[in-house]
Structure formats: C-alpha cells, structure tokens
C-alpha cells in the first residue's frame, strides 16, 4: 500500500490487515510495549480545515512510533498564498517521509500523490474520511467481534462520512442502509460502487426504515466544514434525520451508536442517546490513534 487516498482504492484484505495491525499496536500501547517502527521519520500534516482528533492523534501517534510530526497550517504554508499543490508536493518530498492532508477537494489529495514521491494520507476531504472509518470499523469489530451478518445504518447527510462508511462497511462484509433527504445523497461514484453489492445496500429518505434491524447506527453533522453558509437551509432539510429513542427502538437490541465527532446534540443525535452510548463513541475517538498508527506503518515503514 503506497497511499491512503480513499477506501475505494483498498481491497477487503488491505482493510482487514490495517485493522489487525491497529489491534496489535493498541495492545502494545496499553501494555507499555515500545514500537518505534518509524524511528527517524517525519510526517508533515497539512490542515486547510480545523481539527481536534485528527491533528492530536496523528501527532501523538507519530511520536509513539518513534518519529515526529510537523503541523503545517495553510495560514502559514505558501499554499495559502497560491503556491500550487504540484510544487508543494515535490518540495516536501525532498524533506519528509509522508504527508497527511485535510482539505476540501479530493483532487488536491490525488494531485499530491501524483506529483510527490512520498506516501499521502487523506485526513478528510469533502469526498471522504477514510482514517475515521478505519477507526470506526476497528471499534465495531472490538464490540461485536465480527462484520459478517451485521447491518450498519447511517442517518443524515450523504457527506464524506457517509461515502466512506458505505464503501468501508460493504467491503468488510456488512449490509449498509442509509437514510438521507433527496438532494443530499452520497456521491455518485459511491452509489455506482454499491451496485456491485445488490441488496446489501439500501437507501431511503425514511430514518426508521433505514434503522430497522440495524446493529450499529451512525450519524454526522448536518452542516460539514466549508458549508457554514448553508446552515439554516440544512436545519430545515435535515429536521427529523436524528438518532433518537424512536430510531433506537427500530434497531436491534444492543445496537451500537457511533459518531465521528464533533457532535451537535439535539440536531443529528439527542443528548440522551449520545450519553447512553458515550463509551462506544469515545472508544471510537480513541481508535483514531491506533488505526492511524497502523496506516502510517503500512505506508511509511521500510519493512511493511
Ligand atoms: N472526527 C474528526 O475527524 O475529528 P476532527 O475534525 O476533530 O479531526
Ligand atoms: N462531515 C464532517 C466530519 C467532521 C469530522 C465535516 O466534514 O465537517
């Protein structure tokens, strides 16, 4: 594996391999076993959008692997003043060993990989959020012990999270249902991908229909980063697209709830459901650290 640009590029085996390594690194981390697999390596982290989890988990993860991470905000980089990504990629390739980038257009991430000569990791674009969904899959497997026969449900905006959850969920063997309003459906490239999976994928505009018989429920903010101008319009479009008691009653007994965070209580999820499932949600947040360390080892280690 050279890069992590989107889950569509990965096989089921590659995803499972990352999850297995993430479990091992988590075990070692919890038991004080040092793993300086990336000793002497440097990861550049380009952020064109805000972040709490992604920034801190990548930076800490790189330190735990024996390397260092550089926080590169677009306010400071020449990218912010118009230097093309093609040149940035070629320059950074001469200094550092890998780049994590959070930005708007997926094309920018693909261009970095095309022009640079070092591994590129997608830390969120408008199209997808692969690192988050690897952590989500890790958490589901921790709680449920398997993927086969499970049904994942997503309620809300057909955004970056929905796109990655659909691809990741189907690839590892779960059924996936999604409830979103018309006009806010997942990306056409992702919907085309679902065709290979027949009735293992189901899309509706009715949250209760999507939630019926599900084992793990996801939602995400109604307004993503970069869409703030549409906040009021979206509050109207997404009213009712919420994980609440009624939705939980339609799901299977013992169903998990996951949220990539940050969460907007009483919008996409009620405070009550959020707090009842807080352990699962904060385990999910923790697993960003372990899953991303596995990704960095896979793409940046000389040995893997
Ligand atoms: N879930 C997630 O990516 O969080 P941050 O935006 O805080 O990085
Ligand atoms: N869909 C959200 C995810 C944040 C982690 C956004 O893009 O803002």
Broad structural category: alpha/beta
Tally of DSSP helical segments:
12
CATH superfamily of the largest domain: Aspartate/ornithine carbamoyltransferase
Please summarize the sheet with the most strands: 5 strands, parallel
Number of domains: 2
Q: Compute the gyration radius: what is it?
A: 19 Å
Q: Quote the average pLDDT.
A: 97
**Bound small-molecule species:** phosphoric acid mono(formamide)ester, norvaline
- End-to-end CA span: 9 Å
Overall shape: globular
Tell me about this structure.
With 304 residues, the protein is α/β, with parallel strands linked by helices. The chain has helices spanning 12-30, 53-64, 85-95, 106-115, 130-144, 160-172, 188-194, 207-211, 231-237, 245-250, 271-276, 278-300, and strands at 42-47, 68-73, 98-102, 120-122, 151-155, 175-179, 201-204, 216-219, 256-259. The chain is globular, with a radius of gyration of 19 Å. The chain starts with 11 loop residues before the first helix and ends with a helix. The model has no long low-confidence stretch (mean pLDDT 97). Residues 124, 159-161, 220-221, 224-225, 260 line the site of norvaline.
Keywords for this entry:
single chain; 304 residues; Rossmann fold; 2 domains; binds phosphoric acid mono(formamide)ester; binds norvaline
């Amino acid at each position: 594996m050279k890069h992590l640009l989107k889950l569509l590029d990965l096989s089921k085996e590659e995803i499972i391999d990352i999850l297995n390594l993430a479990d091992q690194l988590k075990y070692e981390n919890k038991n004080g076993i040092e793993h300086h697999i990336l000793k002497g390596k440097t990861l550049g982290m380009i952020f064109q959008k805000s972040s709490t989890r992604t920034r801190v988990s990548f930076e800490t993860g790189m330190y735990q692997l024996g390397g260092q991470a550089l926080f590169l905000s677009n306010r400071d980089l020449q990218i912010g003043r118009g230097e093309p990504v093609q040149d940035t990629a070629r320059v950074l390739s001469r200094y550092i060993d890998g780049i994590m980038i959070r930005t708007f257009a997926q094309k920018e991430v693909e261009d970095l990989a095309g022009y640079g000569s070092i591994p590129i990791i997608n830390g969120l674009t408008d199209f997808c959020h692969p690192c988050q969904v690897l952590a989500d899959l890790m958490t589901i497997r921790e709680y449920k012990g398997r993927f086969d026969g499970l049904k994942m449900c997503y309620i809300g905006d057909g955004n970056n999270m929905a796109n990655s959850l659909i691809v990741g969920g189907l690839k590892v063997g779960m059924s996936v249902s999604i409830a979103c309003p018309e006009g806010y459906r997942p990306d056409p490239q992702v919907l085309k991908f679902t065709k290979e999976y027949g009735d293992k994928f189901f899309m509706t505009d009715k949250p209760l229909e999507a939630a019926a018989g599900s084992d793990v429920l996801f939602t995400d903010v109604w307004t993503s980063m970069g869409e703030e101008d549409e906040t009021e319009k979206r509050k109207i479009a997404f009213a009712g697209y919420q994980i609440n008691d009624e939705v939980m009653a339609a799901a299977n007994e013992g169903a998990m709830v996951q949220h990539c965070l940050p969460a907007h209580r009483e919008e996409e999820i009620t405070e009550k459901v959020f707090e009842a499932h807080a352990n699962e949600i904060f385990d999910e947040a923790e697993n960003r650290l372990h899953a991303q360390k596995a990704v960095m080892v896979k793409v940046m280690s000389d040995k893997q």
